[in-house]
Amino acid sequence: MSDPAAHTQLVPPSSVVLVSGGSRGLGLAIVTDLLESGVKVAAFARTVTPELAKLADAHPDRSHVGSVDVTDLAAAQAFVRAAEERLGPIDGVVNNAAVGQDSLHVHTATADIARIIETNLTAPLQLTRLTVRRMLAQGLRGRIVNITSICAQRGFPGLVAYSATKGGMDAATRSLARELGGRVLVNAVAPGFFASEMSAVLGQTQLDQIVRRTPTGHLTEPEEVVPVVRMLLREQTNINGQVIVVDGAASI
Ligand SMILES: NC(=O)c1ccc[n+]([C@@H]2O[C@H](COP(=O)([O-])OP(=O)(O)OC[C@H]3O[C@@H](n4cnc5c(N)ncnc54)[C@H](OP(=O)(O)O)[C@@H]3O)[C@@H](O)[C@H]2O)c1
Predict the structure, then answer these.
(1) Belongs to which family (predicted)?
(2) Does 162 qualify as catalytic in the annotation?
(3) In sequence order, what are the residues at sequence separation of 6 or more whose Cβ sits closer than 8 angstroms to the Cβ of residue 230?
(4) Is 118 close to ligand 1, i.e. is its CB under 6 Å away?
């Protein structure tokens, strides 16, 4: 990683982007936006929803979708190979797939803690290693965007293991950005709470409380997060190793 030329070349916009958890919620919004921006997109989740299948049908030459459990490294590897055969080398990754939590730490089963850590921390680290190795082997420069959460920076009851995984990914973002010496730009986007299947466990009282604490007066919308992800993948900036919070200043 000590090639001085690495520091003199810019990282071009990603043109083939892998999105994990692209079947619904924020992931689906990211896939939709990237396809509309002309980017080629490979997206997977455990279940391909009708919405994701419809998008793929609408962009047959620029999309590749499939059913993959992100914790199954062999399946993820096979998906990446198939996607690259169809779309070309992947030079952008959005680590978005994750599972939520709604249980006090003392009541969370060991197996549930393990599942949250495996899905939200181990799997994205593995997927990142797999895709970055391929980028470097092919002499490509690329970009990684990790979707983390405001929970990594502020405490929320019922989200202890989840918060730990998101804090882990924020920390990995910084160290990987250093390790890759500018060949691959690595950043994280940390949204505030937004409505999705994951956050459906929040009650109206909690949602009202979050809105009251938010200077912009509303919950974050996926559409307010998507442009930041696109910017990190596509714009020529020198942003690297950062965690960008998108929460209307709720956490300030
Ligand atoms: N919602 C919020 O308030 C909020 C706030 C801050 C950050 N975030 C983060 O934003 C990201 C998206 O969250 P969301 O709210 O859009 O969640 P969501 O609606 O529950 O979507 C999660 C996505 O990840 C996929 N996924 C989950 N486990 C998977 C696995 N083992 N293998 C492959 N795919 C898997 C899901 O599909 P399958 O279930 O079919 O696999 C789905 O496509 C997550 O990283 C989350 O932590 C969410």
Answers:
(1) Belongs to the short-chain dehydrogenases/reductases (SDR) family.
(2) yes
(3) 30, 33, 34, 37
(4) no
Complete domains list, the chain, with CATH: 12-246 (3.40.50.720)
Atom nearest to 46 CA in ligand 1 = 41
User: Could you tell me which residues come within 8 angstroms of residue 209 by beta carbon, excluding any fewer than 6 positions away?
Assistant: none
